[in-house]
Amino acid sequence: QVQLVESGGGLVQAGGSLRLSCAASGRTFSSYAKGWFRQAPGKEREFVAAVNWNGANTYYTDSVKGRFTISRDNAKNTVYLQMNSLKPEDTAVYYCAVDSGGLDTVAAGWRYWGQGTQVFVSS
User: Fold this and answer.
1) Tens of pLDDT along 67-100?
2) Taking a C-beta distance cutoff of 8 angstroms, is the pair 65, 82 a contact?
3) Which tens digit of pLDDT belongs to each residue from 43-67?
4) Phi/psi-derived region of residue 31, left when phi > 0, alpha when psi is between -120 and 50, beta in every other case
């Protein structure tokens, strides 16, 4: 099975930046689609960004377009989410997910999940 561990979360002021990392263990990481979701208290888990297995296609939810960038380093088995121009509404627990299939904006469409990392953006 694939195990994922997120890191890089923390407290940042509005307008600041953070880079989240998701380190994966297991085989065939390079062949998996990779994505990020987030969940704020009392809200549904929300799709944030994803990249397909070969990096040819990326997708972002409208609220983060132009501010967030998803990338991956297959040699390091790591997925990144660069977050710039952060807003208080970005505050959430951020989860990394991978799947052997295609991309999906619904959380139930992803097979493997990390434990999450907290991001708090102060106003």
Assistant:
1) 999 999 888 999 999 999 999 999 999 999 999 8
2) no
3) 999 999 999 988 889 999 999 999 9
4) alpha
| Residue that has been written with the tokens 């888990």 in this structure | 45
Structure-token pair, residue 102? 């295609």
C-alpha distances (whole Å) from 97 to each of 25, 73, 88, 114 are 13, 15, 23, 6
CB 49 within 8 A of CB 61: yes
Confidence category of residue 28, pLDDT binned at 50, 70, 90: low
- All residues at 6 or more sequence positions from 69 whose CB lies less than 8 Å from its CB, including other chains: 49, 81, 82, 84
Closest-CA residue to 72 (of 115, 99, 33): 33
